[in-house]
Structure to design on (340 residues):
């Protein structure tokens, strides 16, 4: 084959390739970044993620100094789900393009049933807006489409086997964290524990530095002279991860009665940034005639309490979880703080 023939073949190959890309433009199978730029590499710049759909469910997730919060609810978002979603935003790519004869049907599904995901940066500047649909037939890809486009594509995360719909859930309950407190000692300004049935045992610990603390009896305002610093540090470390078992549906009349008769403790944490979080713990009254495993009558649940959060939600809390932070003031003096 002579050089002229080789040059001619190369020319026709390049011409054919160019015509192929041009022919696949517009609403075809184009690789244009106009409708394939889903990935957000700098997820640290994201300040807000809003997810909504046509059935009215929506959630707005806000980055804060304490992590991610749910807008309007004053509660933290689930750390595990936030991490999964940010990782998805950072890694997701277009896996396949949908043939022209199937695009219109997927476009309709996304428009009616898809969730809208809006991602914002600093000063609420929009970074990306796209629609998330259901899985492909083999459940290894997810139908998505960028706002302003009419061309849906199949998106995936390399190395992940599954679809991504649940990573962008608009159900606010799925995002609500079951953590009540999540603070390192360095982030805590003070912790206050009120013993409603034994006021003399109520106390406050002020954090002066990560290794220096001050103990105050709330009833008298006095500071015990023999307070054990190491025991106070152990106590404060319990607030790194402290949460509840589940939410409870209870009517307001019953809740008022429980708070009047069965209040046990109120635990309040104030952070260095002056945010305040608290939970009020109440015993759960049992029906008359209830017996324990030994056949003895009991009046309250011995395993669980009601936990009333700062925003008024009622939760179910375990004594086992909260025993290490509902100790009386005397433990710090005697050096008998129980381990979690």
């Amino acid at each position: 084959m002579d050089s002229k023939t080789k040059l001619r073949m190369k020319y026709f190959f390049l011409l054919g390739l160019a015509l192929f890309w041009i022919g696949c433009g517009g609403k075809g199978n184009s690789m244009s970044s106009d409708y394939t730029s889903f990935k957000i590499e700098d997820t640290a710049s994201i300040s807000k993620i809003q997810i909504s759909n046509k059935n009215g469910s929506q959630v707005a997730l806000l980055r804060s100094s304490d992590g991610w919060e749910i807008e309007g609810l004053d509660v933290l978002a689930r750390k595990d789900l936030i991490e999964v979603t940010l990782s998805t935003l950072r890694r997701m790519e277009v896996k396949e393009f949908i043939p022209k004869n199937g695009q219109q049907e997927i476009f309709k599904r996304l428009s009616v049933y898809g969730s809208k995901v809006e991602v914002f940066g600093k000063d609420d500047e929009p970074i990306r807006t796209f629609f998330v649909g259901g899985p492909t037939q083999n459940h290894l890809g997810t139908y998505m489409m960028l706002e302003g486009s009419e061309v849906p594509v199949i998106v995936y995360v390399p190395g992940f086997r599954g679809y991504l719909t649940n990573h962008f859930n608009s159900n606010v309950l799925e995002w609500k964290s079951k953590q009540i407190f999540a603070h390192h000692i360095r982030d805590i300004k003070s912790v206050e524990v009120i013993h409603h049935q034994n006021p003399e045992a109520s106390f406050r610990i002020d954090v002066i530095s990560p290794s220096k603390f001050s103990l105050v009896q709330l009833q008298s305002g006095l500071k015990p002279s023999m307070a054990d610093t190491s025991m106070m540090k152990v106590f404060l470390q319990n607030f790194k991860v402290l949460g509840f078992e589940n939410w409870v549906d209870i009517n307001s009349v019953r809740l008022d009665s429980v708070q009047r008769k069965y209040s046990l403790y109120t635990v309040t944490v104030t952070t260095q940034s002056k945010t305040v979080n608290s939970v009020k713990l109440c015993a759960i009254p049992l029906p008359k005639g209830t017996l324990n495993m030994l056949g003895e009558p009991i009046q309250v649940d011995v395993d669980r309490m009601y936990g009333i959060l700062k925003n008024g939600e009622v939760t179910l809390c375990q004594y086992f979880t909260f025993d290490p932070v509902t100790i009386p003031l005397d433990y710090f003096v005697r050096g008998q703080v129980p381990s979690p």
Confidence is low (pLDDT under 50) at residues 10-33, 335-340. DSSP finds eight helices and 19 strands in the chain. The longest strand covers residues 126-135. The radius of gyration is 29 Å.
